[in-house]
Structure formats: C-alpha cells, structure tokens
Amino acid sequence: MEKAVAVKPQKNGGDGRRQCSICNQRRAALKRPKTLEQICRECFYAVFEEEIHRVIVDNHLFKPGERVAIGASGGKDSTVLAYVLSELNQRHDYGLDLFLLSVDEGITGYRDDSLETVKRNEIQYGLPLKVISYKDLYGWTMDEIVKMIGLKNNCTFCGVFRRQALDRGAALLKVDKLATGHNADDIAETVLLNILRGDIARLSRCTYITTGEDGPIPRCKPFKYTYEKEIVIYPLLNS
Questions:
Q1: Predicted structure pTM score
Q2: CB neighbours of 187 closer than 8 A, spacing ≥ 6?
Q3: In angstroms, how far is the first alpha carbon of the chain from the final one?
Q4: What are the backbone angles phi and psi of residue 134, rounded to the nearest 5°?
Q5: In this model, does residue 148 exceed pLDDT 90?
C-alpha cells in the first residue's frame, strides 16, 4: 500500500479542526501515531485494515484453504487481530478457516475475565473456539505449580508451558498456521532485550514475520508493522 499523503492543501473547519489529510472531505478525528497525519475515523479504519492486508499478501502469510488458529488471550491485540482477520478473510476471499485458540493457565483472578472476552468473540465473530488448559495438558494448574516451586522463576515456567500449550492446541485443531497478535512494539522490545542479553541467535530470529517453518505448525505475525497505539485506537473509535 502506498503511504497515505495529503492530495490537497489542508483546510481548517469552522471549529478550528483540520480536514482529513487523506479524503479532504471529513474533519480529522485523530493524529495517526504511525504517520502523524491528521485523518478522519473512516480513513483510519481503511488504512489500518489495508496495511494489514498488504502485509499478509506481500509476505505470503496464508494460502487458500488453510486452517489458521488465532492465539486468543482476550487482550486488545488478539481481539483486534481476530476481528480484522475475520473481516479481511471475507472481504478479500482468502479462503481461510479461522479458529480461536485460548489457553487457561489456571491462575485465579488472572484469566477469568479474558476468557469471558474470548467466549464473546466466538459469538461476535462467528469463529469456533478451543480452550486448552494446563490442568488438562499437564495435570497441574499454574496456581498448583506455584505452590510447589514458589514464586521464583514461575514466569519462566509459565512461558514455556504456554508456548507448548498453544502448539498442542493448534495440533488438536489440525491447523496449518498459528497467528499471534505480536505487534511492532513487542518486536522492538524483544530486539532490545536480546541486545542487552547478548543473545545473537535469538536476535537474528526475533524480527521474522513467520517462525517455525521447519516445524509442524509455523507461527506468523500479521501485526508485525502495526503500532500498539493504533491497535488501541481501532476499537475505541469503533465503540
């Protein structure tokens, strides 16, 4: 997608607000974090979705007929990803079978609300949902694990278990790919952490848009170039 630029000189409206720099027809509703352009709500939706579509197409993330699981935590990134992928799949006829895949770690008071969000997404977006739990997979909830090992390094254990749970859940769904909501901010943070750690091996891989291509189920990041602020703005403007 070409970078959005003003095609006419911007004019102020009667209330002092500038016209949208893309359509020059509606009043600007926000200054876009990614480009600092002042644009209207409708144009923001259009460029946000079109840029993600271009990322999917240009990087050949999916093939027609593939089964794709969306890692659904119930947070903003995965919720917006589920909605946008569902919309783009219909609009551009990707030919994908989409599924929501969520992990219940068994942490009291932590995952309860987000699982309810994922269950609402299942209904709102019409996407089948698979919830897989640590208890079912490992015979232990994360709360039970912490009681045994203490709080030290519990995040490390949980991270490893969660990654394995997503892989096993994806295998149960028999999907071809797993799409995650990692965005540009997440990737930048990972790059900095790997530089500080001196982890050259991970540094060379952490910016890939698709990983695990040599494994059974590759993972891809449709939000690789999407700013976190814009992911936050997207549902707020739509509310």
A1: 0.86
A2: 206, 207, 221, 224
A3: 26
A4: -60, -40
A5: no
If one counts every other C-beta atom within 10 angstroms of the C-beta of residue 218, the result is: 16
At 69, is the pLDDT very low, low, confident or very high (cuts 50, 70, 90)? very high
Q: Which helix (H) or strand (E) holds 104?
A: strand 97-104
Q: Output the known binding site for ATP.
A: 71-73, 77, 103, 181, 186
List residues forming the annotated binding site: 71-73, 77, 103, 181, 186
Given a contact cutoff of 8 angstroms between Cβ atoms, the answer to whether 106 and 141 are in contact is yes
Contact 142, 109 (CB under 8 A): no
List phi, psi (to 5°) of 27.
-70, 145
- State the Cα–Cα distance between residues 19 and 40, nearest whole angstrom: 8
- DSSP code, position 25: S
Domains of the chain plus CATH, in order, are: 62-238 (3.40.50.620)
